[in-house]
Design goal:
The complex is a heterodimer.
Chain A lengths: L31 H4 L17 H13 L21 H7 L2 H4 L11 H18 L3 E3 L5 H18 L7 E5 L5 H8 L3 E5 L9 H7 L4 E6 L12 H10 L3 E6 L11 H4 L3 E4 L19 E3 L11 E5 L2 E5 L16 H37 L15 E4 L1 H5 L4 H10 L6 E2 L8 E4 L7 H20 L1 H5 L12 H6 L9
Parallel strand pairs in A: 2-3, 2-4, 4-5, 5-6
Antiparallel strand pairs in A: 1-7, 6-7, 8-9, 10-12, 11-12
Helix pairs in contact in A: 3-11, 5-11, 6-7, 11-14
Chain B lengths: L9 H11 L29 H13 L8 E2 L13 H6 L2 H4 L11 H18 L3 E2 L6 H16 L3 E5 L4 H13 L3 E5 L1 E2 L2 E2 L1 H7 L4 E8 L9 H10 L3 E6 L17 E5 L15 E5 L11 E6 L5 E6 L5 H4 L12 H39 L13 E5 L4 H10 L2 E2 L2 E2 L10 E5 L6 H14 L2
Parallel strand pairs in B: 1-14, 3-4, 3-7, 7-8, 8-9
Antiparallel strand pairs in B: 2-10, 5-6, 9-10, 11-12, 13-16, 15-16
Helix pairs in contact in B: 5-11, 6-7, 11-13
The chains are: A alpha/beta, B alpha/beta.
InterPro entries (chain A): GcvPB, GDC-P_C, GDC-P_N, GDC_P, PyrdxlP-dep_Trfase, PyrdxlP-dep_Trfase_major, PyrdxlP-dep_Trfase_small
Family (chain A): Belongs to the GcvP family. C-terminal subunit subfamily.
Subunit structure (chain A): The glycine cleavage system is composed of four proteins: P, T, L and H. In this organism, the P 'protein' is a heterodimer of two subunits.
């Protein structure tokens, strides 16, 4: 891998080259200007590249070589569940009968797609312990907002218009408070106690007649199971609020505890995490929402229903919150998730969780001697270390993360959750072998030793990547967000 | 449990339990209270072997009528377009599709640069000053534009043309409800926004005017007039545009749009029953710090080499939490990559040529329908869609067309009671003269 500047596609363009072969224009040509009003025919062409097909393939191949994916190497990014993305999923999603169908076709001509969606919903209902599932939300945060809008509609339907507050723990994902705001709620933070769990006393203090909902991830972002989940549910239900499950960490509890049995009223899932839709460099995802019976009337419209062996979309939903997305959700990702669930089966999904949790606990025990472990108890699918000890020696968690790049690893999630100083959140997933976990732990241990013996090598990392640390301040102060010809 | 995705062996398991100091995996779940513990296994379908599963799913897929085997004249926001074959080859490179969001720039330069190029291409097409790295789809992008405008202007009313895609309007209303913003719709006249009514409805409380270009009926709105009416009241001018059309049409940026959004689906993205597609979001520079979602910016490393990073993150949920400009986290990065490859392959000349082909073939279809005696009620300029009036049920006709290998147009009666027995026909560059002639002939026979 060379360390020179990688040219932008705009920098290798040459007038007169083409990379396309359009269908033939087999109808009479017309003077398009004569068909358009004055000033509507574009005068100045959009300055897109002019390159050959090989130019394009070389360009993107070079870019791919400058990118780390799960198929490149270990990716223990906490809270992101970077497991293997099965190749069968990709093949199935590209079947013409799934990829090349239009959402507005007559329902009789897309019964196969609707059958798959319906069966996926049935599977997710069983997995979450909910009563109904919608596949409409496009991603996790979108699912959060969808469920909060349903909760809002539920309270409003009860004449309960003063429930303006959503409670989130201090360890919550940033999307939780952001979704609450977008749904028109005010966010109230509840503290964690010394064990890293929701502080029950603080929750009793903040919960009240103005509480719309509590949003909870279980296990939480520290990878710890909220043992008092039933008491938490009782407190929230006791004041008339709803309990919301953020499914980001579902990989930790499949076949072990279902949100529906823990007292949750609604849940969103990240099919691109637990159910192997690939992350795609940031998306697309899919964020189905499951609800208990009393929220069903408020589901986004349309709702997929099955009568005899025929599937239809029901638009006659008088209490629906409306539509959160055009059409029916990220179908292509849902096809991948369905393929995965069918590849694993019930025993497979159970093993997924058991091995994910075993892997995390194993790594935690191998590393606890070398880093601070703020919460020393069995974790679930991930755990959080603190770089406090190393910080005292002048090396920050960011430095250690960058040093891991030199070993060929993607670093853990760092500085999150916010309630751990110099946090490093490690999630191995079940698809990694013991050899991979050991090699990563060895690298971490070596870095811990380097911090003591040769801190500069860590402070100046990375050393082997195509580029060194980038000037983020410059990027934000003088934003250059597009290419412009010199 | 042996499974090809699970490398754990019995020996591994034993060694790992020893290090942890426990004797069974169950102990790791002892913190789950007995009362909520799930016993046994899920009651779901058993695992299926690779080849058997492929076969079963192929059979389910076969039940659907796809646009590979049929000639599709269905548009209404999702189109069967030419997709350069290389698109799938690039996005199938797993360095791209198995990567997470590029938060570690040193090992994510490929993705970051690809997004930077995407942002540039969207700016070029829309004529806007900057674009973000993608939104879920065109509908949510338009809805976020409405919310941005309400926040920016501190006004609580959006004025939306009824010639905007009806499902987009639904989503705009949903997002606006969350922010307690009112949505007022403007009726159409002759298939375009009624400008006199628009002028009546836009006032000092209006945060933004939202129109679509070309609009839901395929007609081309008078953006110059809409701009004037909008900016007279200091509201933001928001355009939802088909990016392919902008290969041939003057871009919204030239007409003074403050925000241009849309869906990049026409560029190399599968119809996929409505998703995932790829929203885009482009703005004038004064709105830079209000943009939702991720932005990639150029910078340098210590040795002066050019590199790219996620930037201006103080807008985003993971930093700003409840004060973020949006709750969006995951976006549509892989589809933005697909669109980039398609836009690159088509390039400067191809995007224009393809857009003009759409206008030309649609014009041919319009003339053919009129020659066959059909009424085409909206006679304004069109892009790749026209409305045709028929004397009977569109849905029933579409069932008959399907038998002939044709996926018919969109039944407008489904969304607008004034347009019962009207069909929205899309003619892309993919449709041949023969297919267009067959459609007109079959419809002629059906409605004779």
């Amino acid at each position: 891998m060379h360390k020179d500047n990688q040219p932008l596609i705009f920098e290798i363009t040459k007038e007169g080259r083409v990379g396309y072969n359009l269908p033939e224009l087999d109808v009479p040509e017309v003077d398009v200007a004569s068909l358009l009003p004055q000033g509507v025919l574009r005068e100045e062409e959009a300055d897109l590249p002019e390159v050959s097909e090989l130019d394009i393939m070389r360009h993107y191949t070079a870019l791919s070589n400058r990118n780390h994916g799960v198929d490149t190497g270990f990716y223990p990014l906490g809270s992101c569940t970077m497991k293997y993305n099965p190749k069968i999923n990709e093949s199935v999603a590209r079947f013409p009968g799934f990829a090349n169908i239009h959402p507005l076709q007559d329902e009789s001509s897309v019964q196969g797609a609707m059958e798959l969606m319906y069966d996926l919903q049935e599977h997710l209902i069983e997995i979450t312990g909910m009563d109904e599932v919608t596949l409409q939300p496009a991603a996790g945060a979108h699912g959060e907002w969808t469920a909060l809008m349903m909760i809002r509609a539920f309270h409003e339907a009860n004449g309960d218009t003063h429930r303006t507050k959503v409670i989130v723990p201090d360890s919550a994902h940033g999307t939780n408070p952001a979704s609450a705001t977008v749904a028109g709620f005010e966010t109230i933070t509840v503290k964690s106690d010394e064990n890293g769990l929701v502080d029950l006393e603080d929750l009793r203090r903040v919960a009240g007649p103005d509480t719309a909902a509590l949003m909870l991830t279980n296990p939480n972002t520290l990878g710890l199971f909220e043992e008092s989940i039933l008491e938490l549910a009782e407190i929230i239900h006791g004041v008339g609020g709803k309990l919301y499950y953020d499914g980001a960490n579902l990989n930790a509890v499949m076949s072990k505890a279902r949100p529906g049995d823990m007292g949750f009223d609604c849940v969103h899932l990240n099919l691109h995490k637990t159910f192997t839709g690939p992350h795609g460099g940031g998306g697309p995802g899919s964020g189905p929402v499951g609800v208990k019976a009393d929220l069903i009337p408020f589901l986004p419209s349309p709702v997929l229903v099955k009568e005899d062996d025929k599937y239809t979309f029901d638009y006659n939903r008088p209490q629906t919150i409306g539509r959160v997305k055009p059409f029916y959700g990220n179908f292509g990702i849902n096809v991948r998730a369905y393929t995965y669930i069918r590849s694993m089966g019930p025993d497979g999904l159970k093993a997924v969780t058991e091995y994910a949790v075993l892997n995390a606990n194993y790594m935690m025990r191998r590393l606890e001697e070398y880093f601070d472990l703020p919460y020393n108890r069995h974790c679930k699918h991930e755990f959080v270390l603190s770089g406090r000890r190393q910080k005292k020696l002048g090396v920050r968690t960011l430095d250690m993360a960058k040093r891991l790049l030199d070993f060929g690893y993607h670093p853990p999630t760092i500085y999150f959750p916010l309630n751990v100083e110099e946090g490093m959140m490690i999630e191995p997933t079940e698809t990694e072998s013991k050899e991979t976990l050991d090699a990563f732990c060895d690298a971490m241990i070596q870095i811990a030793k380097e911090v003591e013996e040769n801190p500069e090598i860590v402070q100046n990392a990375p050393h082997t990547t195509v580029i060194n640390r980038l000037d983020e301040t410059k990027a934000a102060r003088q934003p250059v967000l597009r290419y412009k010809k010199a | 449990m042996k499974h090809r995705y699970l490398p754990m062996t019995e020996q591994d398991q034993k060694e790992m339990l020893d290090v942890i100091g426990i004797s069974s995996i169950d102990e790791l779940f002892s913190d789950i209270p007995e009362k909520v513990r799930f016993k046994g296994e899920y009651n779901i379908k058993p695992a299926k072997a690779e080849s058997a599963l492929l076969k079963e799913l192929a059979q389910i897929a076969e039940k659907n009528a796809d646009s590979k085997k049929h000639a599709s004249f269905l548009g209404a926001g999702v189109y069967d377009h030419f997709k350069p074959i290389i698109v799938d080859h690039v996005i199938s490179r797993s360095e791209f599709y198995t990567a997470y969001t590029p938060y570690q720039p040193e090992i994510s330069q490929g993705e970051l640069q690809a997004i930077f190029e995407f942002q540039t291409m969207i700016c070029e097409l829309t004529g806007m000053e900057l674009a973000n790295s993608s939104m879920y789809d065109g509908g949510t992008a338009l809805a976020e534009a409405g919310n941005l405008a309400a926040g920016h202007t501190r006004r609580k009313k959006l004025v939306v043309s009824e010639a905007v895609h009806p499902e987009y309007i639904d989503v705009v209303k949903m997002y606006a409800k969350g922010q307690n913003v009112a949505v007022v719709t403007v009726p159409t006249k002759d298939g375009v926004t009624d400008l006199a009514k628009l002028e009546e409805l836009v006032d000092e409380e209006t945060a933004a005017v939202l129109v679509q270009y070309p609009n839901f009926f395929g007609q081309i709105e008078d953006l110059a007039k809409v701009e004037q009416i909008t900016h007279d009241k200091k509201a933001l001018f928001v355009v939802s545009a088909n990016p392919l059309a902008l290969g041939a049409l003057t871009p919204p940026g030239k007409f003074g749009a403050d925000i241009t959004v849309g869906d990049a689906q026409p560029f190399g993205i599968a119809e996929a029953f409505g998703g995932p597609h790829c929203g885009f979001f482009a703005v004038s520079s004064k709105l830079m710090r209000k943009v939702p979602g991720r932005l990639v910016g150029e910078t340098t490393d210590e040795e002066g080499r050019r590199g790219f990073v996620l930037t201006l993150q103080a807008r985003e949920q993971h930093i700003r939490r409840d004060k973020a400009t949006s709750n969006i986290c995951s976006n549509q990065a892989l589809n933005a990559l697909a669109a980039s490859v398609a836009m690159t392959a088509l390039g400067k000349k191809g995007v224009k040529e393809m857009a003009i082909q759409n206008i030309t073939k649609t014009h041919y279809a319009k003339q053919a329908f009129e020659k066959a005696g059909f009424v085409v009620p909206f006679q304004g300029a069109h892009f790749n869609e026209i409305v045709v009036k028929v004397n009977g049920s569109v849905t029933e006709a579409n069932k008959a067309l399907l038998e002939k290998g044709i996926i018919g147009g969109f039944d407008l009666g489904r969304v607008n009671s004034d347009l019962k027995n009207h069909v929205l026909i899309a003619v892309t560059e993919q449709r041949t003269k023969e297919e267009i002639d067959a459609l007109v002939q079959e419809m002629g026979a059906l409605y004779a």
